[in-house]
Specification:
Low-confidence stretches: 58-66
Order of helices and strands: EHEEEHEHEHHEHEEHEEEEHEEHH
Mean pLDDT: 88
Structural class: alpha+beta
Strand order of the largest sheet: 13-12-11-14-15
Strand content: 25-35%
């Protein structure tokens, strides 16, 4: 098989997927989002990487002057970098075109579109009746201040697009709320406010692939953000029936094929789905569980 990985040059995950692919006799090359390239003529549309940057392994033995993603067996999305509206639309269009040609795109474009958008994810979860923290999304200072009061004066403010805890802050007093919301309004940001859930200092991450759980970890941290990238400590966890039910429902609501579902249990024992990550990390997960996620992913691609 020929696999393309949309990822950063220094990504541990790109290297891990290549290791697993090569171990199983496949070729895997890296492609950068910013170098996505489309060639349109009377023969149709070819999608790949700009000729100046294409990985030699992708073009070797072909007549193409660039890495032709349309000839891939699968494209694995390992990053969704920020960009202008035009860039984001072009990138999503490219993934949709590849999927329409029968290329496995992991995660599917519509699932990525949902999961990278916190507002859309929250709306899907709420519509499905999945417990999630109370959330208010608005665009101006006055509405944000009202939302702050309605949510109890203790909220988590998140960027609508973001990952690994970047740009997330807790706002728990009116003075900080004024400064934060005024600044975000001036930046023309969408203000996404979620009630702060008081919890025991850990959350649960369940990694899901092809309709089944691969495993679960608990992430402990002194900070309210429990991301491994922020030095949280991970330990293997056996998920409860409720946690598995919520994770399955969240995957169904977002249409993800591989996902990291984050759950938080409050001081009263109520469990919430906090996030569905369509580009889940597994470095800490692998250390804690011993599960080779990259190989499981490659096996999944082989089976479809």
């Amino acid at each position: 098989m020929f696999l393309a990985i949309l990822g950063n040059a220094d990504s541990w995950y790109v290297a891990d997927i290549r290791r697993a692919a090569e171990k199983r006799g496949h070729t895997a090359v890296r492609v950068e989002y910013r170098r996505l390239f489309a060639s349109l003529d009377s023969q149709g549309v070819r999608l790949g990487e700009s000729p100046a940057d294409a990985d030699p392994a992708a073009t070797s033995g072909t007549n193409d002057s660039f890495a032709n993603l349309s000839c891939c067996d699968a494209v694995i999305v390992r990053t969704m970098p920020p960009g202008s509206l035009e860039q984001v639309v072009f990138r999503m269009d490219a993934l949709l075109m590849l999927e329409a040609r029968g290329v496995q795109v992991i995660n599917p474009p519509k699932a990525i579109e949902c999961a990278v958008d916190k507002f859309l994810t929250s709306a899907r979860l709420a519509r499905a009746g999945i417990p999630t923290p109370r959330t208010i999304v608005c665009q101006d200072f006055e509405s944000a201040m009202l939302a702050f009061e309605q949510l109890g004066g203790d909220v988590v403010v998140k960027p609508v697009f973001g990952a690994e805890g970047r740009g997330i802050m807790r706002v728990d007093n009116p003075d900080l709320a004024v400064r934060t919301f005024r600044t975000l309004e001036r930046l023309d940001a969408v203000l996404y406010l979620q009630e702060f859930i008081h919890h025991p200092g850990y959350d649960t991450r369940i990694l899901w692939l092809d309709g089944r759980p691969l495993g679960a970890i608990r992430r402990h941290s002194d900070d309210f953000r429990t991301n491994i990238s922020r030095q949280a400590r991970a330990e293997r966890h056996t998920p409860t029936d409720l946690e598995l039910q919520l994770a399955a429902a969240a995957v169904d609501a977002t249409g993800t094929r591989i996902a990291g579902i984050d759950l938080l249990t409050d001081d009263q024992g109520r469990t919430y789905v906090i996030e569905v990550n369509a580009v889940p990390g597994w470095q800490g997960f692998r250390r804690a569980t011993g599960i080779d996620v990259a190989e499981e992913l490659v096996r999944s691609i082989e089976g479809l």
